Amino acid sequence: MSDIHIRVSGKAGHITLNRPDALNALTYDMVHAIDSALRAWAHDPEIALVIIDALGEKAFCAGGDIAQLYETGRAGDFSYGQGFWRDEYRLNARLAGYSKPIVSFLQGFTMGGGVGIGCHASHRIVGESSRIAMPECGIGLVPDVGGSLLLAHAPGRLGEYFGLTTTRMGPGDAILSGFADHFIPQSEWDGLKVALCETGQLASLMSAVKEAPVAEIIEHMAMIETCFCGESLDDICRNLQNDGSDFALKALSAIKRNSPIAMAVAVEMIHRLRSTTDIKRALELEYRFTYRAMEHGDFLEGIRAAIIDKDRTPKWKHTLDKVPAVDVSFMLRPLGKDKLTFEEESTAMKIGFIGLGNMGGPMAANLAAAGHVVTGFDVAGTTADGVQNVSSAVEAANGADVVITMLPNGAILRSVANEVIPAMGKNAVLLDCSTVDVESARAVAEQCAKAGVLSLDAPVSGGIGGASAGTLTFMVGGTDEGYTKALPLFEIMGQKSVHCGASGNGQAAKICNNMILGATMIATCESFALADKLGLDRQKMFDVVSTSSGYSWSMNAYCPAPGVGPESPADNDYKPGFAAELMLKDLRLSQEAAIAVKADTPMGAMAQALYAQFVEDEDGLGKDFSAMLPKFEKSERP
């Protein structure tokens, strides 16, 4: 008997998974069969809707059939798995964006690949036996098949909880978390399918919907919101340990069984995907990991321990408390020519990149690696991987769909804009990623508008490491049309972009953000210096503050004390991730803006004065902005 039964029943296309003895695990052939059927039915006027169900009581689909993935991977052939995931993810995208209603009936286990088949349907039905989960981290993968997007948009921090602990959701939990839509008693399913096939209408389905069982997870939502809110896997584990409740310690115990690198990447993915509802963005991000999972991740070891040898003692590549940020970034770097693509995607953009310094160079390289045609110019003659260098800014701008600038200040931006805007075509985008004064950003935007060019000011946060890893945050000012056109580029160069409104608002957001950052870093450094003089151990201080009301990015993610917290420039002799002189520049911009609009910012002014003293009169030039800590260690109150 075939593994899958595909037919037309009345006015419905009907797909039934038919491997009950294997919990309806999804094979590569089944992926192709489902995809072919959906293609054919999309344009068939006789087909009003699609039904997807499965035989057997135990499972709708308990995941992908990983036997051949393991065998080929162990033999050093990674192409089979890469091809499987590529085609599976394309099917997931087709299901999510299908032009006709799809009704999925999710009895028993729906896990992993089953989520990709059943949980992107337009009408997802659960019953009494339904148990939905994303268990991938337990075998060295990340939540994939578009499940990362569902987790990212689950209420509160449920996404991090279900993704890291791999906990199974009952019907109420699944509806609450966005993995299902409706509860209908399973005794009614067969009759509903008959009615759907006969009528091609959803009325009978909707009239059968009953009140779902109470979501069991609700009673733990407050704890989950508190403990799973960390920036990193390490934060979350520390929060759970400090909480100490039975539920928290049970969650921590579940986490300790799973692949550390997979969980750390899963947290990063969930955070990135909160800013989008585009499943293709999620699938492309997932594919970056799964493409590398056999060669560089824990996937093969995870399958060995769970499925092959069944010893349940995997030897993961990392320990839970030591997953370097660089390893997380590596697993999510763009794949260049191997990027996951979808049929309807347009061809690569032509991009001119002006300013290939410490930030601009890696940003341009990431765009080239993602398949875009990038020409670059820098007055210093610097180059970037994959970027074709030209002899002038005008040459880089000629014929470009998007011109990106990363420049030192507003005066240079205005000068470059005078050169390149006349060379740009109508509706091309001038995307300035420099940090400059608001007035310069708005002047360039006005100049662009007169020439029919779309202008965006999009300063970045994330430093040199974020530029290399493609994890920058963009604060964007400009028109909706320009932002929409540039969005695919933001998603390559960064983890998040926020459209802040009209031209100049991106710069306004950046200087406000960095005024906060400068002041909080000073306070954090002062506090460590005070703790030293009071005889308080730095690690103990970190353990308290990082989980208390003193929590901040400066403490938790970028701790200025060497050997404390996640790895940061403090652990590398304060080699700059974000140089102190750049912080001084941003603080000066904030105070110039404050004076212009008569805003009272005494803390910002004091932070500017302290960084000016540090950079210009002391030894701060060329050091990270967190090197304020050694300054305060040496100084004493008069």
TrEMBL record:
PROSITE patterns, alphabetized: 3_HYDROXYISOBUT_DH
Record domain 3-hydroxyisobutyrate dehydrogenase-like NAD-binding: where: 504-629
Entry superkingdom: Bacteria
TM region positions: none
Gene3D superfamilies registered for this protein in UniProt: 2-enoyl-CoA Hydratase, Chain A, domain 1, N-(1-d-carboxylethyl)-l-norvaline Dehydrogenase, domain 2, NAD(P)-binding Rossmann-like Domain
PANTHER family: 3-HYDROXYISOBUTYRATE DEHYDROGENASE, MITOCHONDRIAL (PTHR22981:SF7), 3-HYDROXYISOBUTYRATE DEHYDROGENASE-RELATED (PTHR22981)
Name of the protein in its database record: 3-hydroxyisobutyrate dehydrogenase
Organism of derivation: Planktotalea frisia
